[in-house]
Amino acid sequence: MLTSLSLLSPIPLPPTDHRSVDGSRSITRRRAVAFPSKKWRCSASPAGQPPPRQRQRRLKKADDDGEIGNIDPVGFLSKLGISDKGFALYLRERYKSLKDLKDEILMRHIDFRDMASGFELLGMHRNVQHRVDYMEWAPGARYCAVVGDFNDWSPTENCAREGHFGHDDYGYWFVILEDKLRDGEEPDELYFQQYNYVDDYDKGDSGVTAEEIFKKANDEYWEPGEDRFIKSRFEIVAKLYEEIFGPNGPQTEEELEDIPDARTRYEMWKKEGKDDRPGNLPAYDVIDDGKEYDIFRVIDDPVSRAKFRAKKPPIAYWLETRKGRKAWMEKYIPAIPHGSKYRVYLNTPSGPLERIPAWATYVNPEVEGNQGYAIHWEPPPEEAYKWKHKNPKAPKSLRIYEAHIGVSGSEPKIASFSEFTEKVLPHVKEAGYNAIQLIGVVEHKDYFTVGYRVTNMFAVSSRYGTPEDFKHLVDEAHGLGLLVFMDIVHSYSAADEMVGLALFDGSNDCYFHTGKRGHHKFWGTRMFKYEDLDVLHYLLSNLNWWVVEYQVDGFNFHSLASMMYTHNGFASFTGDMEEFYNQYVDRAALLYLILANDILHDLHPNIITIAEDATLYPGLCEPTSQGGLGFDYFVNPRASEMWLSVLENGQDSDWSMSKIVNTLVGIGQSSDKMLLYAENHNQSISGGRSLAEILYGRALLQPSAMNDSLLRGCSLHKIIRLITYTIGGRAYLNFMGNEFGHPERVEFPMSSNGFSFSLANRRWDLIEREGVHRDLLCFDKDMMNLEKTERIISRWLPNIHHINDSNMVISYLRGPFLFIFNFHPTNSYEKYNVGVEEAGEYQVILNTDERKYSGQGSIREDQYVRKTMSRRVDGMRNCLEIPLPSRSAQVYKLTRILRV
């Protein structure tokens, strides 16, 4: 009786969804298979080669997809006005390489989702049976085992099996950690017994034996006669064999005679069974209409057809054989308990070594000078975080608040995820931002590196809390309507061999290039081997992991120049197009970026990707189908470099308005995709000073009165941010604390400062009392509200029509809004003429010189409404006469149109 059901339902249930808004536990999607077969090939065929027919079908599908997308490998060149033939030829060759790479990927993976879902199989995963499966990629190793405090760090207790299922041809090792029976317990009767381990209930564990469940299924599900073929599936074959080859069958070829055609045999069978009593089996007649292409007509019994369609697979009975977590806990002891410390043990040609697994999701990288270890993270249902909020919709413009968790607290220590969630997130929401960008979240060994020398790509930094704490942070941010972006570092990796990926399997750099190409020329980091399919599998899966497991909304790809050029971006760029396709350009890295954007946007349509490339590679934000790299936004880092340079190296009166405008907008990319910032976190990496520290010095720490130094600093602080925010594209970024003029720079504890935390925090107390800092924060809020209330940034692009270097005035229009800036340190203008297109009344909606912003209040309220004059200025039909104090800026809105 066991045979019937087991033959029908040997497939486990589909995996539980990873996302639930109603409070259900979030778990990673993973294939419910007893053993991954995707990486292992049948020994009868060459490794990695699917059957010829299947391979041909996949390649054809890839070609079809390419045709559907209207592919033009050089489509964006005419849009950007690029006529370089060499670059066009390079783009066509790159597209061909991309097609070849996709075909190669589909030879080993079912589809591109599978390519980016390695975390479903690799690393440590609980199996639906009573065991934990561990997979690791170490092609240079000869032996693999999992060691930890759960097995007294024994390299022989939990090792890969001998033979085909322990190590495949690609270098993937498979280790099974069997759960241990408690004393007095007997093994399960069914070798395929499954447990619902992730939920704390015992559905189906009612004490009914498996035999009773199978008998119940066979009695209730099958009608008499329907299960005849299931029980005796070789009956027809045996009878046919006996009839032809048995002792009573034809002995010679003459006795065999000719076999009648199908129609004749059907008529003979029908005639022989005409007197048979009707049975319970469905009645079907197949009629050959004699058509040329062998089209048959099937005539069936309507009653039988209805019964057949109404019948459902007996999954409900199969569910009854699944036991709950409580039953599992009573019978078994976990092979590797939650919170266990572990590493992977590898025997290599260079000798035995222990490594932190590359796919580990929680890691302690440094333990008082000892080797780090991974932590098995499998919390019970009552401790696992339950998602509450949905991801916010992607807005049309981004106001990003960049933050570092560790330095976000007021005290001189490393802050935590929980502290950031409780104290900083409400401030970000109140300040008017709609997204946060977190740096240093991914695990790294040395705190002073700000998180840019990543050691463990799939792990949140244990310094700040647990994975559940980070999920809580992301979920609370979503509840406040904030998107969550991560700074992702795939352009290089830490060179540490004890906790990182360098020399992971001992014998070769499986993840990185060997020789000089595998080392960053200046930073001492390692460079990924992007042309290797297994490295691509790792990196693409890493991107997908953060979206699936932690629900992040986007990525800022850090320092792309380091990966796109073999000189790591440290070369003098002259502006010649050849520099973007010469021998120093790493085509494999560019193909990886194209794949990353294609796969991310296909799997997660609302994802946002940002390119941080100092060289502004052509086509960063152009569609991949048109030869671009496919990013949603690109960073223009030259703006912050320009502000730092003019503040440190020149007099205020020497500033060039033309240079400022050209730096902010004078690029050959799509300006609506540009992200600008006056300053970001770079000061904390390079050891530089913040703009506030340059502008104010120590005066802001103890401001006794508004002196000339403070007035200059406040004025420039406001107009620099306002023009950076409003003259560019649809994205703006501010680093944590700079919105209120944080008087001190960020400096992480290191040997040069005696490992001091004095500058590794933020002075939130400064905005709790009246003064300059609160006033600057008030201005920043009102500046953010320009977009919230008027949608200035998302609806229009700037029309810059007035740049006067002698008067140091800049003016531009965005729809019905006029922006005008006076950078002159001393000259104020009572009636400054500036052109506008529409005649009417314009009213000030933001004035940087107001007293509530620590300004001088030079403009009276009765001067806030100005009427146009019919005079042609700046190529416009009308003009305004505007009072313009020195070092100030105003935003006017057209409130009433006058018809002439």
Automatic annotation (TrEMBL):
Stretches the record annotates as Disordered: 36-66
Entry-linked Pfam families: Alpha-amylase, Alpha-amylase_C, CBM_48
Organism: Centaurea solstitialis (yellow star-thistle)
Ranges of residues in domain Glycosyl hydrolase family 13 catalytic: 420-730
GO-annotated molecular function: 1,4-alpha-glucan branching enzyme activity; cation binding; hydrolase activity, hydrolyzing O-glycosyl compounds
Any one GO CC term of the record: amyloplast
EC identifiers of the protein: 2.4.1.18
Biochemical pathway: Glycan biosynthesis; starch biosynthesis
Root EC class: transferase
Reaction(s) the record says it catalyses: Transfers a segment of a (1->4)-alpha-D-glucan chain to a primary hydroxy group in a similar glucan chain
Keyword Hydrolase among UniProt keywords: no
Keyword terms, alphabetized: Amyloplast, Plastid, Transferase
Protein known as: 1,4-alpha-glucan branching enzyme
Biological processes, Gene Ontology terms: glycogen biosynthetic process
Family: Belongs to the glycosyl hydrolase 13 family. GlgB subfamily.
Cellular localisation: Plastid, Amyloplast
Highest taxon of source: Eukaryota
